[in-house]
TrEMBL record, chains A, B:
The keyword Transferase applies. GO terms for cellular component: cytoplasm. It is an enzyme of class 2 (transferase). It comes from Methanobrevibacter curvatus. PANTHER family: GEPHYRIN (PTHR10192:SF5), MOLYBDOPTERIN BIOSYNTHESIS PROTEIN (PTHR10192). This is Molybdopterin molybdenumtransferase.
Length: 406, 406
């Protein structure tokens, strides 16, 4: 298959969206749920606080016993028990009695207020009180913050540490979340070798394996990596053997039109290529297909093109598999440089942005990964624009905002 | 030990800094290096490109053979070989000859330029050429982007996907990075139980275990969790048994002054408490100590206080153990609310920030974790300020910028 006609990025996204798979749920231990996505609403099994709770260190009392007390009118109560946080008292406070409590203690039966410690002097069983409290003063009533049965989290929430704590407080030690996609990466190319000290003839180090592993990690995903030579039968088998076990296949290399560029042809043969060639720069030779219902993202073999394709066309799909909407915040910056572009093509210029302005990451247009290291953002030139002028306000996306990070 | 005198946050940070431990290096597989921190500078073992590389699909030629050719002066060369990316030709181009190459191919010996395919018509072995190229045209020369021996990354770089790729391209399949701290969390409290459907008497669900696990995950760290009752001997043993195996101990609970608040006393007994009580809100009852050279962070038992303490006093230390400087970006926002504060105390108000303004996450001052769920940021009231006015420009930190995320 030849890369003859390029489709616009917007059209490529439409096709991806039409073929979006959203995975099922699975129940996992809550402690493993960081950055996972809730499948259902969560309702609390408990009131919070679960009991009338003292909000102060002091004495649980019957408020009416304190009403007229003051430094000039000291009353004396009888201390019948002392409890710390985590303990409770079996005793019931009767008229004239008090129980020492800590912040967080359950207020013992009979008590209806907590008198702060600083308004008291204790002497054995005797408690001199120098101040008054009104009923319910210094008590956080049961269910004040969360009522049993109350919805505490909405489905599709991405779980941060605080949501994990809230789910625990609601009485759940497990959570139902969307499955994470299992990803198979098949790096293609006869020329590829592992990193090492010597390179023979046309050998090229397989760096895509590492960049794509890193990009998947930035979405919280692991990957199983394989390598295929540019041999139709070998690649065909590797693809077909992966569709059962994995939710997504990503390939690199073999998406151009040169001799040996076989990936598109193989996918067309064993499944369907839905598009090949997108009007983006970098990353034009990108393909998307489906084999045995498994989506296959065909990236370029060029590291920077593959990264750009991943950022532009793959991240959104992978996140949506967990029902996460990918919508990285764009910032406006003044461009320090003029950059030409073609109408109909979307450019993702590797750029270095400050709080005010943006420019190319490198002076020269380099195809290599060093430019991605020097960049911190993409400067986006929309498909409806023919380049940008120096001094123009443009949109950028910081690389770190592409990651799954809440 | 009693929480009598509070030290300022700036003083607490000074003491933490004086007791900062930076861990040793370890050599790991490059594919596992995402968000790890380089221990040393990295120098490339290779030129990049590793050979003179064709930048176009076309024909490697001797430029001089093409000099006068044009659509009106078509010359004919002899095609002696054809190679795709990843392959190379053993042949040497002699005067009057050409070899077909793909983008990325090594330029065969003898050739000094690549003529783009569109200026040619091939017919068997014959290649009609309709254009001229100058020497070195359409060739990316060996070492153009990276020279062998060139420093490609500085020590202390946090590795993203592109740095992983660059290290691979430099010839390394492993990387020396700072060790990640091994963290032991000891949650204390007789009252704590696992999440479940029923709560008896003073029982409280152990939510700190989950929030702190989540916060550690946000720094790329795992944690080993234990639970101790409020028993001096039990806690002492758990602390002492952890100092050999772990780089950091974090405790929750037992840092106030109530009966049963034993953590500070235990650390004082088996090691040294360097400070206890910090003028921050929330999170005043925070302690820091050292036992057998192992730093011990003593957090409050209250989930929101513990989270605030972690964000304020623990993250920076843990990151610095890997030689990462923690400096989350602060944004300026207009406060929609007046918030009182005390001179000398730093407040971290759970807040909801938009692109323009900020307000409390909850109307009421709540001690519970729900407020952290509703918030997306901290509004910071510096220790040198007595509160903020409605309409005042204030500093906020988005929660997600507290995480390790590049």
């Amino acid at each position: 298959m030849f890369l003859t006609e390029l489709i616009k990025l917007s059209e490529a996204k439409r096709i991806l969206n039409e073929n979006q798979i959203i995975l099922d749920g699975e129940i996992i231990d809550l402690k493993d749920s960081y950055l996972r996505v809730l499948k259902d609403d969560i309702y609390s099994k408990h009131d919070s606080p679960p009991f009338d709770k003292s909000a102060m260190d002091g004495y649980a009392v019957i408020a009416e016993d304190t009403f007229t007390s003051s430094p000039n009118n000291i009353k004396v109560l009888k201390i019948i028990d002392r409890i710390g946080a985590g303990n409770y008292s079996e005793k019931t406070i009767e008229k004239g009695e008090a129980i020492k409590v800590a912040t967080g203690s359950p207020v013992p039966k009979g008590g209806n207020a907590v008198l702060m410690e600083e308004y008291t002097i204790s002497n054995g069983e005797n408690l001199e009180i120098h101040g008054a409290v009104t009923p319910s003063e210094n008590i956080a009533p049961q269910g004040e913050d969360i009522k049993v049965g109350e919805k505490i989290l909405e489905k599709n929430t991405i779980l941060r540490s605080q949501e994990m704590g809230l789910i625990a407080s609601g009485g759940y030690g497990k959570a139902e979340v969307y499955k994470k996609p299992l990803v198979k990466l098949i790096v293609t190319g006869n020329e590829l070798v592992e990193p090492g000290s010597t390179l023979k003839k046309a050998e090229v180090i397989n760096s895509n394996k590492f960049t794509i592993t890193g990009m998947l990690k930035s979405l919280g995903l692991d990957v199983e990596i394989d390598h295929s030579h540019d041999e139709i039968q070998e690649l065909k088998e590797k693809i077909l053997n992966s569709t059962d076990e994995y939710d997504v296949i990503i390939t690199t290399g073999g998406t151009a039109i040169s001799k040996g560029d076989i990936v598109i042809d193989v996918i067309e043969d064993v499944g369907e290529v839905l598009f090949h060639g997108v009007a983006i720069r970098p990353g034009k030779p990108f393909g998307f297909g489906v084999v045995n219902k498994t989506p296959v993202f065909m990236l370029s073999g060029y590291p920077v093109a593959a990264m750009g394709q991943f950022d532009t066309l793959v991240r959104e799909y992978l996140l949506k598999m967990q029902n996460i909407t990918f919508n990285p915040k764009k910032h406006k910056r003044i461009s320090n440089v003029k950059i030409p572009s073609s109408l109909g093509r979307t450019d993702f210029v590797r750029a270095y942005s400050t709080d005010e302005s943006v420019e190319h990451a490198l002076n020269k247009g380099s195809g290599i990964i060093k430019s991605m290291v020097e960049a911190n953002s993409y400067l986006i030139i929309d498909e409806n624009k023919e380049g940008i002028e120096k001094g123009e306000t443009v949109e950028i996306i910081y690389f770190e905002l592409l990651n799954l990070n809440k």
